[in-house]
User: Fold this.
Amino acid sequence: MANIPYKIYLTEKELPQYWYNLKAVMKELPDPMLNPATLKPCTKEELKQVFCSELVEQEFNAKDKYIEIPEGIRDFYRMIRPSPLIRAYYLERMLNTPAEIYYKFEGTNTSGSHKLNSAAAQVFYAKEEGITTLTTETGAGQWGTALSMACAFYNIDLTVYMVKVSAEQKPYRKAVIETYGGKVIPSPSDTTEIGRKILAENPGTGGSLGCAISEALETAAKTENCRYVLGSVLDHVLLHQSIIGEETRIACEKYDIKPDIIIGSVGGGSNFGGLIAPFMGDKIAGKNNIHFIGVEPASCPSLTRGRYAYDFGDTGKTTPLIKMYTLGSGFMPSPNHAGGLRYHGMSPIVSKLYHDGYFEARSVEQTRVFEAAVAFARCEGILPAPESSHALCVAIDEAIKCRERGEKKTIIFGLSGTGYFDISAYMSYNNGSMSDYVPTDEDLEKGFATIPRI
Amino acid sequence: MANIPYKIYLTEKELPQYWYNLKAVMKELPDPMLNPATLKPCTKEELKQVFCSELVEQEFNAKDKYIEIPEGIRDFYRMIRPSPLIRAYYLERMLNTPAEIYYKFEGTNTSGSHKLNSAAAQVFYAKEEGITTLTTETGAGQWGTALSMACAFYNIDLTVYMVKVSAEQKPYRKAVIETYGGKVIPSPSDTTEIGRKILAENPGTGGSLGCAISEALETAAKTENCRYVLGSVLDHVLLHQSIIGEETRIACEKYDIKPDIIIGSVGGGSNFGGLIAPFMGDKIAGKNNIHFIGVEPASCPSLTRGRYAYDFGDTGKTTPLIKMYTLGSGFMPSPNHAGGLRYHGMSPIVSKLYHDGYFEARSVEQTRVFEAAVAFARCEGILPAPESSHALCVAIDEAIKCRERGEKKTIIFGLSGTGYFDISAYMSYNNGSMSDYVPTDEDLEKGFATIPRI
Assistant:
C-alpha cells in the first residue's frame, strides 16, 4: 500500500505534448455530419462559417493518432495541469474492499471541471485566427465558467447564453463568469430571432440547452469576427479532453497500475471520451481487455434508452445532423434533475464506440448518486460535482462487488469536477426534497417523435 | 526561469513530521492569559474545562521547538497536503516585474482554506480523549466548513454557531457544513442564555463572531463529553498552522529559493503566524533578514490602529483575558466589509512579535483588495478568497516597487484560500456597489472603551 502515493502528480516535463485522436485508431469511423438542407456530408468550408478553422481541421482529422499541443496552449495547461490521479485509500478503507480505486481529479482548477481543457484550446485557436468575440451556451454553468477563464487569459470577448433557469438558480456561477469578464445573457432572450420566437411561443419558459445553443449560433453568425464554440459532443472537443486520458496513462505506466475497469460519467461525452481515449485505443488494437463503463442519469438516458440516429444538436434545429444516440432534440429533461448531463444527444465518437460494443453503459438515479457523493465527500474530503458522482456511484458498486467476490480489481474513475457551485442540489438532497425521475416510455416516444426521418 | 516548476509539490515523504513552535524560540514570550475573576494567570486545569487536554498542553508549551504530528493527524494531512508552492509566472508577466513571486496555496481542499490544518488536529485530539461532541463558532464560514470535514472524518458530532448574517448571506456555506454532518445554528439563538439575552437586548441583530463564541462556549460547558474548539488566535492553532510554513521552508530549500519578503493576511493571526513560523524563528536567531508584512483590512485594523492590551476574546466577556492588539471586544466591524478578517483581537504570539518590531503591518481598503483579486484570478486562474487577497494586494504593490526600482526581490505570499463561497462579495465588486469603510477615530474610541481596565 505504501508504494503508491495518495496523489500522483506528474511533473511539468511529463505534461503530454500530444492529444490522442481516437478516430485515427477506430476500426470504423462515426458517420459524417450532414447538412440538413442537402443531406450531404458537411464540408469543412460550411463548418468554418461557424467554427474556427483549426478546430474544423481537427474535427475532420481521422489520420493522425497524435496531434501536437501548441506551446500557446501548453502555456495555459501548465497553470491548471497536470491534474492528480488520486489513490482512493480512504474510500477503499470505508468500503473494506480488496479493489484498488483511483480517480483522475479534474476539479482542481477554479472553473471546477475538465471543461477548461477544451476551452483553453478553442480560445487559443480563435485568438490565432484573429477572432475577437466568441459566443457559447452553458447549462449547469461549468462550460461557461471555463470559457470565461480562457477568454480572460487570451483576451477575447465572450457572450454566454445561459439557460435561464440555471442563471436564476445559480447566480454565483453567473457571477464567476462575470468576474472573468464574460457577458451572461439568460436564454431564451430577446437578443436573437430564435429567442424571441421561443419566448413568444413559450412565455415564462426556463429555457433549455438546445435553445441556448440556437441563440449562440445565431449571434455568432451575425457578429463580425465572431465564432461559436461548443464544450462537448464534437470530435475536436473529445480530442482536447484526451489530455485527461493521456495523463492517466502516463501516471499508470509510471506506477505500474493496470486498470481492469475505467468508469466515466457521460453527458455530451467529452469527459468520458477524453478519459478513455488512449486506453480505448489500446483496446481496439487488442492490447488490453479493460472494461469501460459510461454512466448516465436515469432521467436523461441517451445511451441506455435512446436511439442511434441522425438528429439535430439543438432545439432550434439549426445545427448539422449528427449520427448519435439521442432522445430527440425535443426531449425535455425533468427540471427535477439536479446536475448537468441533461443533453439529449451524445458525442458521435462515443456513440459509435457504444454501438460497436466497446463499452458498457449504465444509468443511475439521482438520489443514489447523491448518496455516493456525500459518502465520498466525507471520507475522501472532496465534494464532487453531481455529474461526476454518476461515475463515482458505479465505481463504488464495482468495488463492493469486488468485496463480495473477493476480487482485487483495479478501478479508475473520472472525477470530472467539484460541486462547489452546485450546492443547491446538495441542499435538496440534505433536506430530503430530492426525488428520482425516470422518463416513461411515453415520455421518450414524445422525444423520439422529434428525431428527423431521413 | 525554466528551472523552477510552476507548482512545487512536495512528495508525501517530505510532508513535515513536526509542527514548529514559535514560542520556543521567541526571546520574550507573550504575556499569559488571565482569569478575569482573579486576574491571575489561567491554569491548565481551568482551560481543560473548555478545551481538550492535549491542546491545553500545547497552548502552554514554550519549550519544544518541534512538536511531533501524530500519525492519526498525518493520516488526514495526506488527504489534503502537501499544498503547492506556486511560482506566479503569469502574475510576474502581467506586472512585468523583475521580482520572483511565489504563493503558498492553501485552497486546494474542499473547505477552501488553511483552517483545515488545525481542524484536523483539534478533532483528532478530541477523539483520542473520548470527547463525543464539539462546539464552535464561524463567521465567514471557513472554520465551520473545515471543522465539519474533520468531524465527519473522525466521526464526532459538531454544533456550529454561525453568525446569523453569514448564515443568511451564505446559505451555501451552511449547506456544505450540513453535507458534512455538522449542525448549524444561526447566532444569536435561543439555545443559550447569552443568546437569549443578546436577542432580547438587540432584536433583529445579525450577530457577531464574539457573540457566536459566547454561545458555543456556553453550550460546550453545559453538554456532556463536549469541548469547545477555536479556529484562530490561540497558540495551539498557530502551532498547527506552522505546517504551512514548514512546507514552504522545505520547498524553498529544495529549489534554493531565498525569500526577501513574506506576506500574509492577518485576521486572528493563524494563517500569518503559521506561514511565517520557521522563517521568523530563523530571523529571531539572526539567520535571515526577511521582511515580513502582515496585511489587515482598513475596516478592522487591529494591528495598525488597535491597542496592545488585555482584552476579552468574545463579546460576552466570558473568555480569559488575552494580551493582544485589540479594537475592543465591543468593536463592531462595518457590515459593509465583504470578507472575513473581522475579528477585534489578534493572536497573542503575532501581537507580541509585532509589538517587538519583528514585522510590518499594513492595512488596505477592500476595493483595492478586490481589484487585485480579480486581476489575479484572470491571470493566475485562481479565484482567491477576499481574506487572502489582502496579502495578494500587498504582494502586487511590492512587485511593482521592484519594477520601479529595478530590484529582483523574491516575494512569497500566503494564498490562504479560495473565494468560491464568497461570490456575493465578488458580485458587489462587479456591479460597483462595493464601497470602502474606514472607521473614524471616534468609532475606534467606542471600541476601545470596551477594553477592561486592569
In short: The first strand of chain A starts at residue 7 and ends at 8. Chain A has a mean pLDDT of 94. The domain at 7-16+81-111+234-448 of chain A is CATH 3.40.50.1100 (Rossmann fold). The two ends of chain A are 56 Å apart (CA to CA).
